[in-house]
Amino acid sequence: MGRISRLPDDLANQIAAGEVVERPASVVKELIENAIDAKATRIVVTAEYGGKKLIRVEDDGLGMDPDDARLCLERHATSKISRADDLGAIMTLGFRGEALPSIASVSHFRLRTRARGSESGTEIRVNAGIIESVVEAGGPEGTMIEVADVFYNLPARRKFLKSDAAEAAQLSRFVTQLALCYPEVGFTLTSSGRKIISVPPVTSLSDRLYQLYGDRQDLVQVDREFGGLRLHGFIAALAEQGPVRGPQHVFVNRRIVKDRTIAHAILDAYSVATNKERSPEVHLFLDMPPDQVDVNVHPTKAEVRFKEQSQVHQLVRHALGDALGKGPAPELTLRTSDVLPGHPMQPSIPGSLHGGSFPSRWDPPEQSWRPGANAVVAPSAPQAPEAPQAPYSTVRPMIALGQFRDTFIIAMDDEGLCIIDQHVAHERVLFERIMEKLTTESLESQRLLIPAVLELPPAERAALVGKAEALARFGFEVEEFGGDSIKVTAMPALLDPNQCDSALRALAEDLEGLDRGLRIEDALKQIAATTACHAAVKAHYPLTLEKIHHILEELRATAYSTVCPHGRPVMLRITRREIEKNFDRI
Ligand SMILES: Nc1ncnc2c1ncn2[C@@H]1O[C@H](COP(=O)(O)OP(=O)(O)OP(=O)(O)O)[C@@H](O)[C@H]1O
Ligand SMILES: [Mg+2]
Fold first, then answer.
1. What is the CA(209)–ligand 1 centre distance, in A?
2. pLDDT at position 183, please?
3. Which residue(s) pair with 14 in the sheet?
């Protein structure tokens, strides 16, 4: 007798269920997706014990007539595709006809549905895949599905479920994501009696974002089209001082997707502007013709395959890069209670407003106010010459007022007062200039009259000498000098020779700390950041008004001008509104 036999249907269904349904959250995802495909405008989700005990999803969608209600529980029964060709351009979230039979085969399952416009509905009960009853039933138009004791008949799977809290968290993550993706649909999630999400239908993504996350001025909008693809959404600004980690939501053609190409492009975009390690908050929507993406490549549809992967990478990287460059400077909020009555501000603080020019009104030259024109102006100075287009500039034209404590530049623009960290601003400017120059040539070098000899720990020494070639592009010449030492014969012209020692020690430390398999561009970026940091004006350093103007002017012509290469903010702004509010003028 042969050794092969056909598996009984119920066992085959349970195995299939193992692929489609990983945990309670995947049941919720499948049921909500069905409701969305059925054109629901409101979806109500209830979960008990993280969904392990009970999941209920109610919708006001199209519903099903009695025949469909029976059919939907059979495997490979679907209303969404009918021919092989349909697979090439899937417009619905579901397409396999597997979710409901899979879920019903591993739970106590109840379906109640009434087709729109129909007099009565149908209720079907299923236990572990076996239909127990089918009866006519009342109830509103739409569909209600209840899934109790998921995996009760598959102890091997049930054992792997996490704590109620962890399952509940995952479940609410899915509901949040689907809610973000479908603002026109209202969602409610009640978990163990607590209302977690309750968002009525709205007309735009930004309204939905507001419902879910509150006022998020710190997010930057992205919107870019390229080659038939559109990417839009909101992402964390660079200068954000809060957590460096946040939810990363990526949707392709309105599906929740985890995609390595996109994830990589996101990190790439952030790393262009800063070395700070982060996993930034993003809510990104990529839309493309359905024949450009295969959605039928993953058992829970969590992944997709792009026809033109590199095009997707480029779009995401460029769209985010541009948007980040446009991120706003963080705004300061004033608290009047900080100013104690009877303690007037000192009229003059040593070192404050050093070299300030105190212009009394905002009066920028006409031409400089145009976007792209370089419009940092000295009051009463001749008109600023037209500078080359500054496509990134996020900094408004400013009038410098002076320097505070030899560390901060104080300036005003037409809508606010700005406090600029002189070191961080100059560092950003220099970093950008260095990176620009490196794309075509090496930096200018200066030969040291007397070569410097540095003693360094072995690992750091090896890191420096190992990157001698990269360092040479910056103008550094370093070589082994026997024993614990290295010899430096030349350094970048933009560094003060007094800085040589400290700059190289910092570089040695940075390079040693970096991953050995590091890409050369990343090493260059690290060297550029450290060089810029050492070449930039320091805090507690008096600046002339000319130098202040120069830094502000350069800053406006610089990409990503609101954040330094290490991720620190360059400037803070107090808006006119904030000032007026605090003086009770509005
Ligand atoms: N909430 C609902 N409202 C109306 N019809 C539904 C609903 N849920 C399921 N159906 C019907 O039942 C069918 C089977 O659903 P099921 O989720 O098993 O498969 P699918 O959505 O077609 O594909 P997939 O397995 O990829 O999800 C659907 O094609 C749809 O016609
Ligand atoms: Mg489905």
1. 28
2. 97
3. none
Of 91-105, 235-249, 329-343, where does the model show the most confidence? 91-105
End-to-end Cα, the chain, rounded Å:
90
Distance CA 55, CA 440 (A): 60
Contacts of 167 (CB under 8 A, 6+ apart): 23, 24, 25, 49, 50, 51, 52, 161
Give the residue among 437, 408, 425 at the shortest CA–CA distance from 553: 425
Q: What are phi and psi of 448, to 5 degrees?
A: -80, 135
Tokens of residue 512, six digits: 């040693």
Instruction: Say what the pLDDT of residue 517 is.
Output: 62
Nearest CA-CA partner of 129 in 16, 293, 268, 270: 16
CA of 134 to the centre of ligand 2 (A): 21
The pair of structure tokens assigned to 457 is 């720990």
- Those residues whose C-beta lies under 8 Å from the C-beta of residue 546, and which sit 6 or more positions away, are none
Q: Whose CA is nearest to atom 28 of ligand 1?
A: 78
Rounded-to-integer distance, Cα 430 and Cα 535, Å: 8
Amino acid at 379: P
Long-range contact set of residues 464-467: C-beta below 8 Å, sequence gap at least 24: 464/504, 464/507, 464/508, 464/511, 466/511, 467/511, 467/523, 467/527
In this model, does residue 166 exceed pLDDT 90?
A: yes
Ion ligand 2 — residues with CB < 5 Å: 34, 94, 99
pTM of the model: 0.71
Mean pLDDT of the chain: 84
Query: Which residue of 55, 56, 72 sits with most ligand 1 atoms within 8 Å of its CB, as the best mutation to test the pocket?
Result: 72
Strand partners, 412: 399, 417
Nearest to 51 by CA among 148, 119, 124: 148
Residue type, 548: I
As a three-state string, the secondary structure of 307-364 is CCHHHHHHHHHHHHHHHHHCCCCCECCCCHHHCCCCCCCCCCCCCCCCCCCCCCCCCC
- Which residue is associated with the tokens 């460029």? 318
Q: Are 579 and 417 in contact (CB under 8 A)?
A: yes
pLDDT digits (tens, 9 = 90+) for 218-228: 889 999 999 89
Q: Which residue has the tokens 């109500």?
A: 44
Closest ligand to residue 32's CA:
1
CA distance 486 to 461: 7
The residue behind tokens 């507690």 is 540
Question: What does each C-alpha distance from 339 to 270, 335, 348, 411 come to in angstroms?
Answer: 38, 8, 17, 22
**Shortest-distance atom of ligand 1 to CA 57:** 1
Cβ < 6 A, ligand 1 pocket: 30, 34-35, 38, 59, 61-64, 72, 77-80, 94-100, 143
Higher pLDDT, 462 or 36: 36
Place of tokens 């070589």: 479
Residue nearest to atom 19 of ligand 1 (CA): 97
Helix or strand or coil: residue 447?
Answer: strand
> How much is the pLDDT for 14?
82
Burial class (CB in 10 A: 0-12, 13-18, 19+), 248: middle
